[in-house]
Amino acid sequence: MKCPYCGHLDNRVIDSRLNKDATITRRRRECLACNQRFTTYERLEVMLPVLVKKDGRREPWDRHKLIAGLQKACEKRTVSRDKIDDFTDEIERKLQDYGAKEIHSQVVGQWVMEGLPRLDEVAYVRFASVYRQFKDVNEFMDELKTLLDSRGKNE
User: Fold this and answer.
1) In sequence order, what DSSP letters do the residues of 20-50 get, joined into one string?
2) Is 99 left (phi over 0), alpha (psi -120 to 50) or beta?
3) What's the mean pLDDT when you consider all of the chain?
4) Greatest Cα pair distance in the chain
5) Is the full-model pTM beyond 0.70?
């Protein structure tokens, strides 16, 4: 592992810990050249399906794109980064279980839309406004009514 401070390649591991799901290993390291400490994370690399976009383009799954979208939707809300990471992990587990080499991005978008109300209802509405590309306020109101109706059924 290359030191982010001096670029030296030799370092030693001071501490290793697993996350609560035992899927990520956090390692504290110390550079043997400059003695600076830094943290690395190890995660099992799994082969996830390629996303097929609306226009037919294919691109590899990018966890960071989903996290960025969720962070934008959760901006100024009380949703922690841990909850966003857990939600993203849940979507990735669905992708792993999907069992195909390709998946339409609309399927993944639908999974996100189904799970977001449990994370934060305002984030759901924000995400939906971008994902569904509302053309007018009536479409937006219809989405809100759907959310409120499903909320009433769950209570």
Assistant:
1) TTS-EEEEEEEETTT--EEEEEEE----PPE
2) left
3) 89
4) 63
5) no
